[in-house]
Amino acid sequence: MWQLPNHCWAKIALLAGFITFASGALAQGEQIDPELRHALSLAVHNSASFVDQYEAQVWLVPRSSWLELYVEDPQERVDLLTAIHAESVRADLDPDLVMSLIEIESGFDPYAVSRSGALGLMQVMSFWKAELGRPEDNLTDIATNLRYGCAILAYYLEMESGDLEPALARYNGSHGQSWYSDRVLTALAKWP
Question: What pTM does this model have?
Answer without folding.
Answer: 0.75
